[in-house]
Amino acid sequence: MSIAPAHLAEAACDALRRGRIVGVGGLAILSAELADTDTLAALETQERAGLIITARRAGVLNLANQIAAAAPDPEPVWVDRPDWLDLPASRAVADPVLDLATPLKGPFRTRALGEDAPSARAAIALAKLGALIPAVYAVPLGDAPAAVTCPADAILALPPAQARVRVSSRARLPLARAEDCQVVAFRPDDGGPEHLALVIGNPDVRQPVLARLHSSCLTGDVLGSLKCDCGPQLHAAIAAIAAHPGGGILLYLQQEGRGIGLLNKLRAYALQDQGWDTVDANTRLGFEPDERDFSLAAAMFNVLNVTSVALMTNNPLKVEGLAGHGFTVTRVAHDMPPNPHNAAYLATKRDRQGHML
User: Fold this and answer.
1) How many CA atoms lie within 13 A of 48 on its CB side?
2) CATH code of the domain containing 132
3) Prior bond of 140 cis (ω within 30°)
4) Tens of pLDDT, residues 247-259
5) Is 290 designated active site?
6) pTM to 2 decimals?
7) Catalytic residue selected from 180, 277, 290, 293
């Protein structure tokens, strides 16, 4: 019985997250974040592994042209590993949080990807899908002991261009700021994390629905972090929707850290402590400034029969993201006053990401 390519890609992501060797196209790869002495030795039975990093990270290390690294879909970069570039040293190449502790890196030699380019792109995509640091050790697949082997194009096809979700459950959920509230839980067909819709009041879907797309932020929403404005935005949006005639809908999307995952977001926080702003922190890690996929929100609104929204946001990407899926979108300003801990963060969102603050 053959296994569907999409299922192989999902199995490969799971194996990579468990620190196992995975076959991707013509390469055998291992997460640079999770590798240890034994797993790296198992990968290197035939030859020394190279280190594949994103063009963003390569640009930081002056291994790629900065302008080219910021272009849409730039190629990853293969870094050869001489004997001195052992596990700790190469981990410092992958993880920018270690840059201050290991400032002297290189000289490095890079290798043209050639026919391995699709496999390298898929390897980086798989690491991002698994919310890992986007860097992997790699050797030609050969006889490497891969736990799973997957075609590169199967990984590059994930996630689907049009997300699909289904309602898993509904329940009444009275909130402190919105007692007339129902929670609708959505399970995506790709097996990713679940997402929630808070349906407050009785919104008329024949009219523009007052709505908010809120990406999860454990540190801000739950712990009350002052480094961002997420918690105040969430609670103010719930209160505003509850006060609005007819109510509205808040989508709570599991896209922590603009889509890079909780642990990578905390790494970005560590980089901010070193003096980098929120955009540079993400790109130094090897990510784009914003990795979120708003097709999930579009799919959820489709299930809820919403076609037009008055969107509470100051992020133009959210407006463009929904409009690109056929929704009629009008923007409703939604900004919170700064505090001493997040004033620079908000200024960066305004000045470098175009937020309308």
Assistant:
1) 12
2) 3.90.870.10
3) no
4) 999 999 999 999 9
5) yes
6) 0.89
7) 290
